[in-house]
Amino acid sequence: MTNVTYKYATVLVAIQNLRNEGYNVDFNLEENCLICGDNKYTIDDFEIEQVYRYEGESNPSDEATVYGIASKDGLKGILVTAYGAYTDSMSTAMLRKLALKND
Fold it and tell me: Is 46's pLDDT higher than 90?
């Protein structure tokens, strides 16, 4: 992971700025991979380049994370996850890849 930052005020602003930086497709989580259209990407097929985490002021369910992702086949896109939305069906390896690290 290249960049962990919290510099944008809202999720919408983070998405708009990532779009301006060329992250033009939308990724979604499906079981143990990311999907974009008909393409599926396992944990070895993409890198997380940017991460923006937003915490709800009074409710943990208001938390979200915005990822700037680059696939090995050249797609750059965005994944937005809500607090706990993906944890039940994801593999341990995928959860580790998506986890924020304080290195």
Answer: yes
